[in-house]
Amino acid sequence: MYKRYLPLEIFALLCSCLFAFHYLDAGQGFFMVAVAGTVGDMVGFYSSGFIRQIWVHCRDYHDTHGWRRVRDILGLAFWDMVKEHGIAGFFDDIFIRPFLLWKMPQWLALIAQMFMAGQINLGPGPAPSMVMGLLLLQLPLEKIGLVIGKLCADYIFYRVSYECRKRFGHLTPARVFKCLKTLLLRTT
Hints:
By secondary structure, the protein is mainly α. Helix content is 85%, strand content 0%. The chain has helices at residues 2-25, 30-60, 67-117, 127-138, 141-168, 173-185. α5 (141-168) crosses α6. The radius of gyration is 21 Å and the shape is elongated.
């Protein structure tokens, strides 16, 4: 699994950081930064995954020639991406990832402020907490928060995708909605 998805995720992380940091350095609001980071992640992940699928089908699909071969390979690569990531990718790219990229830098700054105010204690007296707060405030919390938000969104995406595939096999819309209903209503 790592061999299959790790290169895609590394490229997605680079693209997401490039897009989001550009908007962040330009002084845009966190919402625009989150949208840019999500678009960068989508471009990096899905383009590299699509190229990987094209490569796989080019090796395996050599019995036809010309435009028919190109059409068939592109169609199969696109269908493989939809089957593999389909609805889980849709929910991730529309709801989960933008929300986490939007809120995680703010939550990280709030944690640093809580250390400074002594609301989170690391030891006896306020000194260790204040030192931790000062150290955190010296770091680029917005950029660190974006990377943490991206990694949390990746975990949620792979967890939902894995649960859906494990329980319901190949992803079709009916099976995905059944999986989401089961995941959301599970109490254990």
